[in-house]
Amino acid sequence: MFLTITTTGTPERPATDLGFLLHKHPGKAQAFSTSHGTAHVLYPEATAERCTAALLLEVDPVALVRRGKGKGRGGAPDSALAQYVNDRPYAASSLMSVALSTVFKSALRGVCNALPERAEAPLPLRIEVPALPARGGADLVHKLFGPLGWASVSAEPVALDEEFPEWGESCYVRLVLEGELRLADALRQLYVLLPVLDDAKHYWVAPDEVDKLLRAGDGWLADHPEQKLITSRYLSRRWGLTRQAMERLELVRLAEADDIAVEAIDNAVDETTDTEDRPVPLAVQRRDAILAALTAAGASRVLDLGCGQGQLVQELLKDVRFTEIVGVDVSMRALTIAARRLRLERMGERQAGRITLMQGSLAYTDKRLKGYDAAVLSEVIEHLDLPRLPALEYAVFGAARPRTVIVTTPNVEYNVRWESLPAGHVRHGDHRFEWTRAEFRDWAASVAERHGYGVEFVPVGPDDAEVGPPTQMAVFEMTTTAKEANAA
Ligand code: SAH
Question: What is the pTM of this model?
């Protein structure tokens, strides 16, 4: 199994920087043991003009069989011989993908402390995989890599045996990708698409594969025209997982459009709340109101659901009363920005131990969210389509059941006071709805009743005599325990 990555350079930007980006020195050959054999990294060429890194995976077919998944294509999978004589040792497949993620872990994440700006920038790349098993053939290879920003994608079918062309073609292609891409993006594409093309995962697909897929697919999978095929093959056609991944990808798409929009609106809001000498932006007033409510509730272990870019998490961190802070969001990009804002990587162990950021969708119940003192949903519910709201309601109030739940959402009545907002418009593009005070109260009261909570309402921002405050906040306190609620 073999894969090469080549880049070109100039004296100012030498091609050998590839060594830094891959975290593997061009001057030495290195070997890493993976669960299925040994992965070698070596550089057949390493000059300032041109540098090639090769990843060679030496698969131990016997170990593969012992692990019980040695099925190769092109033979009866269960015949005794096929166990030992199979294509796994030389074809780039899911094993190669695992090797990529083991050997180039930091590169896949786009991390490079030595040359951070090189890691961020597109690089002239040529990637070659001489024997890529491609179920679906060259056609599918083009469909998969075509939309991903490569200047050229070539997939030449490999003859079964070059001496006997009449035997026809094998199911392998020689893949060559050329173009300017960020190295991390290119690696993440390969990590997902090699096993997708091979379509024979060597290991059991566990539910956390969905997380891995979404992480590796960040930035390209949500908009890929072949998303369904990719998702279903990557997850070995486990339909439940595939559907879950597709739904999360849809939310990622929405949330990503949203990241940009949220910034813009926050800025606009900051301007329009300009009342007195030193205006306090509405976003800050909202966080203050939430902090006050959390403190009043005596909460110390807190969930920030739909935490976005982590502004509230950052505030909570400043107060030692909050011993455990968990930020959850569906958008990987938002979480990445949050981690950067919080400087998680550079934080001391104790501080870092107080924080967890995790990806998750609030439209699904999630065991990880059980047992907290309080949960905050700040400007989140209006991002869900109304028909999905009951799912969120159940996930939070029915399943996670924190003692206190704080929900904020825009008060649509106040929109007439935003000078920059055209009449009849919501505050920004991704708001699926905005409620009047009466609508919010109705919803909150019925949620409270269904799930055994009491609820109080708090205005946030200037409370206008006619139209009320710009933000409305509901504070729910549990009155019955889950058992009682179930019994009722
Ligand atoms: N709470 C932050 C961000 C609000 S923007 C604040 O008050 O500033 C809404 C956030 O909800 C976005 O970050 C979006 O990615 C997230 N979101 C939307 N739908 C979600 C869902 N179903 N599950 C989890 N997060 C979701």
Answer: 0.52
